[in-house]
Amino acid sequence: MLRWITAVLFLSRIGFPEVLIGLLPGAEGTVRLPRVAGLAFAMDVITSGKQVPAFDAYKHGVVDKVCGENVLEEAKVFANKVIGQPLGSRRLSGVDVKDAGSVDSLFEAALSLAKKKFRGQIAPIYCLKSVRNSAKMPFHKAAAEESKLIIELMTGSQSAALRYSFFAERSVPKWKLPCGATVNNTKPDIIRKTGVVGAGTMGSGIAVCLIQAGIPVILVEKDQKGNLSSLLSITVSQQISTTNAPADQYIWSLQLGTHFTGSSFCSCGFIFQRPPTSVKSWQMLEKAIKNISGILDGTVRVNRMTSKQKDQCMGILKGASTINELSDADLVIEAVYENLELKRQVFSQLDQVCKASTVLCSNTSTLDIDKIASATKRPEKVVGTHFFSPAYIMRLLENVYGTKTSPTTVATVMELGRRIGKVTVLVKSCHGFVANRTHLCFGAELKCCVLFLCSYVKGIDVGWRIRQEVAKSAGLTLTPETRYLNGERVSTLGDSLYEKGRYGIKTGKGWYKYDPSNPRKPVPDSDVEDIITRHCARMGLQRQNIPPKEVIDRCLYAAINESFRVLEERVAEKPQDIDVIWQYGFSFPRYAGGPLYFASQVGLKKVFEKVCYFHEKFPYSSHWVPSDLLRKLASHSVEIPMDQWTEFLSCSKL
Ligand code: NAD
């Protein structure tokens, strides 16, 4: 039983990734590592699956030598030095765990942390148990126990789902279009400079994603009247002074565009120039840039970036209040309000200003990409890039192609997603695309149950705008009293919150209230209970208790049925795309796979029966009309594997 003799390159990272697919390092990893590096290190590394830098591994005795770039030569010298030396001291079967005396307290602390951090997952708990065994049992006994534990994990449902998730995530970048274009046969455009229009929640977050990846951004915010022709220009510069003068003490510079020759003051490290117009725009832009700077400060605080890197990021960010500044951009992402006319107006302006090769992207959550693209003379260059909020945290990017979007444009935004470190899924345009379309069904059921565990980050105003747009396109006016839209039941409870200015975190209250010192922590608010009671009275609704299991089933099966429809309409290419969207967009547990993986485990016959049951019970909700594809798959006497589901869309298998 030898411990490793290893020499590794200084840039290497070392870890036990098994837990990430629901396993433990079952080739005696949980028994050996504590003997080499101690319990605390072993518990941390094995339960998290994280990779530690080579020098940390060396410090803990996991590797014998960290080499420079000439790793082969150094390793040979090292090997020659140790050849022939006695091996006794390296036999781990004879070595005790150094901190075995504190095993119980270390185990309890690690267990309570793991339960919080990896909520619902069993593999990290098994890892801890196995490491504890290694301190309490002789080597061979602990190793035998480890084997039993890994067999349990390997045959369990969580590991199966995590292995599915592992491959599903790797399958989504391999996009293909109905025309036959694929990731392998299409070259993306090269993107050097970008623009973002709208410096609100999403625009600022998207700018962070881009500058963190080293991609220069010009961030455009409108002026007071929504007019983009203002001459204001804010230049972010590396020439930092520390003046912290309040806004009204800044000296105004009448220099236009990016030429900076006048007097200037700096705040938060940026040089601002402003003409005496567009005060509102200037304030909004200043706020956005301060916000971006604050986000990056947070990244520095958690050691994910150095101060120097932060300054470099800020150095490639420039603010502007005119789209004219985007003439040179290779790609522009629009993130203005969710309003079709406004977006069409912005795209038409972009089309006139930007060079012919510029790719024009919309961050719309729901709107038809074709309708936005038709405001331009380059629909083949128009595409959806749907980021999730907060854009700099959420790893999902849902890229949306319209009927005229070219393969090159698709390749460009898929490559951009890869460059900025997103899990990027390609889908076809339809109302709400895949993420919001399937999630809206989930949310609709949830609101009908009036158990509002809704997303608290997403702005309630965004939902309001989406509903207004849907109503408008149907020629209707939506009020909180509306019960049916297009013959379908809707819940306007969110609109009652909107009426009270409760938009979510951004206004300090939404479904919950938020303490500004800890805005991520939602605090239940009795005012919301009052709003619900009044809303129900206004609508003449009788509130009733619905068992939690029914709430979960209704929400989940509504999303599953809609997911099958999405497949049926080829909005998503494969089930994995939808599951990955749910994992990264809505935190669906990876160890449960996703709504469609879940359905495959339940069995499609049972899923179909349940959907039919709810359809009968709630005939007014069109999302309960059973999907045709689901019906076909469920009618087979044998369960059809997920990979073959979409083959049933072709005539031969109908
Ligand atoms: P927001 O209200 O926070 O920001 C919109 C910004 O656009 C505002 O700062 C506004 O001043 C600016 N703006 C408006 N008209 C403009 C114009 N003509 N030119 C330049 N700037 C203009 O909204 P948001 O939440 O960031 O949403 C923006 C888009 O992103 C919407 O399409 C929304 O549906 C989508 N989206 C939002 C979320 C979310 O959770 N907030 C998630 C995904 C997608």
How would you describe the overall organization of this protein?
The strands form 5 sheets. An 11-stranded mixed sheet has the order 8-9-7-10-6-5-11-12-13-14-15, sandwiched between helices. A two-stranded parallel sheet has the order 1-4. It has a two-stranded antiparallel sheet with strand order 2-3. It starts with 6 loop residues before the first strand and ends in a 20-residue tail after the last helix. α8 (157-171) packs across α20, α15 (435-448) runs antiparallel to α19 (548-568) and α19 packs across α22. The chain is of the alpha/beta class and 654 residues long. Helix content is 43%, strand content 11%. Bound molecules: nicotinamide-adenine-dinucleotide. Nicotinamide-adenine-dinucleotide is lined by residues 197-203, 220-222, 226, 228, 284, 335-338, 342, 346, 363-365, 387-389, 458-459, 462.
List the defining traits of the structure above.
654 residues; alpha/beta; eleven-stranded mixed sheet; two-stranded parallel ribbon; 23 helices; 11% strand; globular; binds nicotinamide-adenine-dinucleotide; isomerase; 6-PGluconate_DH-like_C_sf; multifunctional enzyme; 3-OHacyl-CoA_DH_NAD-bd
Mean pLDDT value: 86
Q: Tell me, what's the shape?
A: globular
Residues in helix, %: 40-55%
Q: What ligands are attached or bound here?
A: nicotinamide-adenine-dinucleotide
Largest sheet: 11 strands, mixed
Structure class: alpha/beta
Q: Strands across the major sheet, in which order?
A: 8-9-7-10-6-5-11-12-13-14-15
Strand content: 5-15%
Rounded Rg: 28 Å
Secondary structure tally, helices: 23
**Stretches with pLDDT under 50, minimum 5 residues:** 224-277, 453-457
Terminal-residue CA separation: 58 Å
How many beta-strand runs? 19
